[in-house]
């Protein structure tokens, strides 16, 4: 069996140089990999931190939005594409009363007002209060937001303002009313003076009494019209023909 030839000094030196070179290359490669791993770890940590900050900011904004919706002075309803109520704020519950979530908007509307659909922006509730309803699409998904505002106080103020205006106009109307009453009052006075005649036939006396009663009824209607105006009602109108008035006057005097 042959024995391996021992390496010469020159070969040993070459082998040692190769070993050293490979060791240096491995060490350099390891350090490069270590540097890359460290850089990737820092990038991953930064990305994770940014993601956490983004989520925290979104959560903060969502909480703030929820707080703002809850604090709104009007009611807010969120409807899904099938018009089913998915979310509400406290003011909506105050105005419409529970249950709300899970019911269709049409059901709730009928329950609180007796109406099956909106005929106008304002709805009179069975409780006597009046609300304004505005609906808008949220996005392409078909969800809607319904905003409800209690306008009962505004209507009361409008009614009070209208009544104040009517009362202000009452002074002007009183002057016109006095002029309108003066004519039937003069006729009534004339009729009554005729009734004082002792030689007045019974039939004519009866006719004059009927005319006096008719004039008094006419004045009563004028007063009723004035009161209706003050209350804001629409007074009934009556057609008076001048020919008939003149005919009554002639038949009374002659």
Report what the structure shows:
The structure is a single chain. The chain starts with 8 loop residues before the first helix and ends with a helix. Helix 4 packs antiparallel against helix 5. The radius of gyration is 48 Å and the shape is rod-shaped. The chain is built from 6 helices and 5 strands. It is an alpha+beta fold. It folds into 3 domains: 65 residues; 78 residues, PAS domain (Beta-Lactamase, 2-Layer Sandwich); 98 residues, no CATH class. Strands 2-1-5-4-3 form a 5-stranded antiparallel β-sheet.
Pattern of helices and strands: HEEHHEEEHHH
Q: What general outline do the C-alpha atoms trace?
A: rod-shaped
How many DSSP H or I helices?
6
- Tell me the fraction of residues in β-strands, as a range: 5-15%
Largest β sheet strand count, sense and barrel closure = 5 strands, antiparallel
Query: How much is the radius of gyration in Å?
Result: 48 Å
Number of strands: 5
Content-based structural category:
alpha+beta
Q: End-to-end span in angstroms?
A: 175 Å
Low-confidence sequence ranges: none
- Structural domain count: 3
Mean pLDDT: 79
Helical amount: 55-70%
Strand order of the largest sheet: 2-1-5-4-3
Jot down its keywords.
254 residues; alpha+beta; 6 helices; 5 strands; 65% helix; 11% strand
